[in-house]
DNA sequence: ATGATGTATAGACGATTGTCTATGAGCGAG
DNA sequence: CTCGCTCATAGACAATCGTCTATACATCAT
């Protein structure tokens, strides 16, 4: 059997003929002329090298080889029909997978969107990569993920960004700290305190350093800690103060207090970053669309800042 | 997805590319040039309407849609590979089905061949139709079966025949009959006896009638019985004499005796009859081939008469 | 015989495929 | 920065496909 020139069309014709029982009937169903169908059948039988149909009392009956061939056709055609269904699910973004990379701190906010999204599209498999800014930048450079979440994005020359949430950075101290009750405090009044810092290279650290420089001050005692969690614990046990995302202050957590330092908060934003020329999986686009449409539902209005529409729009036009 | 112009060849190319990981590699394996493969891939992706491959660190990786498409290809190609295996089994006659129609009396001889054949080709499904000559002739006219077994075939204008076994017709009487011990008897000396006959239209009856006419004699008392079995019982219980196939005299059956009538036995032969222009299923051909080759093994040499080779040869050349 | 219905064959033709060569562009290892 | 891979695109061309119309042949029921 020479399979090379077998077209799926040919299989469809064959299946129709077997179902219809006559060539003419099949031709009518297929909106073809009878000779066309006859000829296709001949080609098919030539390709298979075996008669597939024989005429028994006026109707075309498949031969033994033809019956089995019919089954094979049904299976193959069915398989590609299934694939077609799969494709449309994929295209609709209801299915498939995508990966998203977050810097550590985004863990506090992204689950609010990812959770409901996964509920709505249970067939979509999301890989979430979490790491520090350095690691995420490396992934970004290697284009290992479909969507990145940064607060302070790298160069946007080949990438697009869309803000989706405010991320004000505030100075945090232990609950009982005197400045917490003040109306307003100058940073210079706090330089005697020890400051707890994330490692150089972290976004918060970068922002803090440049803000301090702007204010024309520099810190005294500092202590470097590896995670925001460690810093939180450190603050509440009186180890010092720190600049933190306001999201880190869980409403229920009474052991920390925001200090009303002049010139703060530093406004920054969580944003989705996507490579401009990278093909975005449908599922990833579906997530962005979901974020765009449902941000209001899952994020308190005080944090809202929805620019995701632009991004969706950009990729929708592809 | 537009399936119409998808060729299996195209699927093979795609599968090879995915396995090879690069277009060039695949091209080499397929003995094609690289641009050819590139172009096929493009056509394929156009047909599917979705990118199937993307280049990740130097190798081509299937996309989500591509991975699933790959599976669909494997399934479809595998399905037709299986069909190919099936086909060759069919062609080899190791598998499939055929039908054979026998006149009643052939039941005594055909199982000797069919039994061993079925043992050798357990995958072949044989339908055996048994009836009287009239019924079998009707089936023959309507071409309902692949092979017919007649002792006295109908017109052979559009059919081919091959003798495979002697079928001498002898006069049979009860064991104690005086003529059984004689050296030779003339039929005229037996006309006082009652004769047991099959119905008009049965082959044996036809042969007997024309033989009697040749001898210029006619029977006195007769009795018509519907089956050879009934006739056997009738003879042994002294109801009369009958012309029967010598095969009917089981060696162990001591209640019947062959009467050495002059001018007998009438030589006749079991033969396979096949429509000349009917496509013979491979399995049917395999049976004839089997009969041709193994007749000596399963049939005592005294009955042998093998002309089946001619038939096999005729259809082999198709 | 005469239609009616179904199938096969032949000839025609534009669209698509399968293949090539030539050439240019991208990229990772020297 | 160039070499040696890789891939993509363009142009060419014969073979094959997917269709059609016209016509002849085969059955079967008038």
TrEMBL record, chains A, B:
The keyword Oxidoreductase does not apply. Residues 6-63 form the HTH lysR-type domain. It holds the Pfam family LysR_substrate. Keywords: DNA-binding, Transcription, Transcription regulation. GO terms for molecular function: DNA-binding transcription factor activity; transcription cis-regulatory region binding. The keyword Transcription applies. SUPFAM superfamilies: Periplasmic binding protein-like II, Winged helix' DNA-binding domain. PROSITE patterns: HTH_LYSR (PS50931). Belongs to the LysR transcriptional regulatory family. This is LysR family transcriptional regulator. It comes from Alkalilimnicola ehrlichii.
């Amino acid at each position: 059997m020479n399979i090379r020139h077998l077209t799926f069309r040919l299989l469809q014709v064959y299946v129709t003929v077997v179902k219809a029982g006559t060539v003419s009937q099949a031709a009518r169903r297929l909106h073809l002329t009878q000779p066309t169908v006859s000829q296709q059948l001949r080609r098919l039988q030539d390709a298979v090298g075996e008669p597939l149909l024989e005429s028994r009392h006026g109707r075309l009956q498949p031969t033994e080889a033809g019956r089995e061939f019919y089954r094979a056709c049904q299976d193959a055609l069915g398989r590609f029909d299934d694939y077609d269904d799969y494709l449309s699910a994929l295209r609709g973004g209801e299915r498939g997978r995508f990966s998203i990379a977050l810097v550590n701190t985004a863990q506090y906010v992204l689950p609010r969107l990812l959770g409901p999204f996964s509920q709505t599209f249970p067939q979509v498999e999301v890989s979430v990569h979490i790491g520090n800014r350095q690691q995420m930048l490396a992934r970004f450079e290697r284009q290992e993920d479909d969507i990145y979440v940064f607060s302070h994005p790298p160069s946007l020359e080949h990438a697009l960004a869309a803000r989706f949430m405010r991320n004000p950075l505030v100075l945090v101290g232990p609950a009982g700290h005197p400045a917490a009750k003040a109306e307003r405090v100058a940073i210079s009044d706090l330089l005697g305190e020890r400051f707890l810092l994330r490692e150089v290279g972290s976004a918060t650290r970068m922002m803090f350093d440049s803000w301090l420089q702007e204010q024309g001050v520099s810190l005294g005692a500092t202590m470097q800690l590896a995670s925001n969690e460690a810093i939180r614990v450190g603050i509440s046990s009186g180890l010092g103060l720190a600049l933190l995302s306001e999201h880190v202050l869980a409403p229920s957590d009474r052991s920390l207090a925001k200090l009303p330092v002049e010139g703060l908060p530093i406004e920054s934003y969580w944003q989705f970053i996507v490579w401009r020329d990278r093909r975005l999986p449908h599922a990833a686009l579906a997530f962005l669309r979901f974020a765009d449409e449902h941000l209001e539902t899952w994020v308190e209005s005080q944090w809202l800042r929805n620019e995701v529409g632009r991004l969706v729009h950009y990729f929708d036009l592809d």
